[in-house]
Write a structure and sequence with these properties.
It is a single chain. This protein is an alpha+beta fold. The protein is built from 7 helices and 11 strands. The chain has 2 domains: about 55 residues, Multidrug-efflux Transporter Regulator, Chain: A, Domain 2 (Orthogonal Bundle), CATH 1.10.1660; about 130 residues, Regulatory factor, effector binding domain (Multidrug-efflux Transporter 1 Regulator Bmrr, Chain A, Alpha-Beta Barrel), CATH 3.20.80.10.
Length: about 250
Amino acid sequence: MSEDLLPIGRFARLCRLSVKQLRNYDDLGLLAPAWIDPSSGYRYYRRDQARDALSIGLLRTLEVPLPAVARALSGDAADALREARDRIEDDLLRRRRALHLLDRVLAGGLPEARVRTVREPARRVRVAAEAATPTTIARATSACVARLLSGGTLEGALVGLFPLDMTDGFDVRVAMEAADGADLLPGGLFAAATHVGPYEEIQLTVYGVLAWIGDHGHAPGGPVREVYLDDPAATEPERLRTQVLIRLEDA
């Protein structure tokens, strides 16, 4: 065994990591020991591996996920770290929005919505879809709207379509009523309420509508529809009106 090798305990102290972390990084293929004693299974590391070990530790304290750390160590550092930064920025934005909504709830209590039932006819629509996560809904919705308006004119109301269950990944869809639309937006009986305020606060009204549905013994059917009644380019965020519609599945 070379004198340049350090046992895992000494190497861990040098790199400000725990022995458990080093073993985990070995199991994940991030940082393999230079030599493993075949009789004891004890791990040894070269001194020149310390830089990689310290890099892993630093990036993990910065909340860079392990797959991105692996890419950074393999030479794809700029793109991997830029993507990690974007994810952290998205998370910060989500938390700021959550903090704002929590302040609203603290000030006014859990939201109550003025709900009515409306019967909607089936409509011919054009639909644009975009993959999204809970932190990229606004970006995905804007991309869908841009594609629908790329033809030039707004033919009918824009309707955002969002799943009832916001999982880690889903499709955001936006529909535009059009006589030659290739898709059919089903009709039926809906619980409806009008949200007034910024789009990022619509979930408070969605909560109110779902609570009303539960209180009245109905079952909700997705997707949640958001009918955008005002042009955000010409209307202050606090005055934006959005109709929230959730189909009564049992009606």
